[in-house]
Amino acid sequence: MSSQxxxxxxxxxxxxxxxxxxxxxxxxxxxxxxxNEVVVAELTAAFAAVGQDPELRVxxxxxxxxxxxxxxxxxxMKAMAGFSWEQNHADAALLAEMLWxxxxxxxxxxxxxxxxxxxxxxxxxxxCDVVVAVETAxxxxxxxxxxxxxxxxxxxxxxxxxxxxxRRYFLTAERFSAAEAHRLGLxxxxxxxxxxxxxxSALAAAIAANGPQxxxxxxxxxxxxxxxxxxxxxxxDTARRIADIRASAEGREGVQSFLNKSRPAWLx
Length: 268
Hints:
The chain is of the alpha/beta class and about 270 residues long. The protein has helices at about 35-50, 75-80, 85-105, 120-125, 155-160, 165-170, 180-185, 195-210, 210-225, 230-245, 250-260; strands spanning about 10-15, 20-25, 60-65, 110-115, 115-120, 130-135, 140, 175, 190. The strands form two sheets. The protein has a six-stranded mixed β-sheet with strand order 1-2-3-4-6-9, sandwiched between helices. It has a three-stranded mixed β-sheet with strand order 5-7-8.
């Protein structure tokens, strides 16, 4: 995995026992960690790299400063104002690729939301598997205020917020609280500033304590079966998945460890 010295706008550090946790941090607090083309490229590269690391158990996506992510950088938006359709499409495709790279990362991703998330920042939250946010954080899908729409982030935000809530907040561009984000399902855990890291660490430890291959398979399973009709082919696919994991070395060891009341190798 690349070290933090390879990046300009983010850092990547290994933490936890045996370096099983990676922390990817946005490092542009002076502009509220807003996106530009460099941030997009570096997040894409970083998550592609962590996804290829077989020893990694969890990724924490964090940010420095008061805001988690304010969406698009103003200077980037000024540059885009003069883009042709083709240039706009190419630019948006890079953002879509970044979001997909995080969403499809084989390693579970926990968002540590220490401040506001606006526009594309909400998309960044929505692509994560588990979200912990401070109670004072605010969320806003503000694109319509600028005559735009949250297109590239929409597949993930609609899944996370639900269709009806997405209709409201896409259309009104209202700010909504962390408590409301929690009620709607975008955020799974609320925290204070003082216990944010404690809650993130507890969730990371819980994930890291499970079978590494099983955890990755669980992440894929949810993505593959969500919103899919329960057809004979889906039922057969799920039966094949459990047969695969039961017959795997990790699955066999996990069951035997449970029956023998011993520790599996992944906890050594």
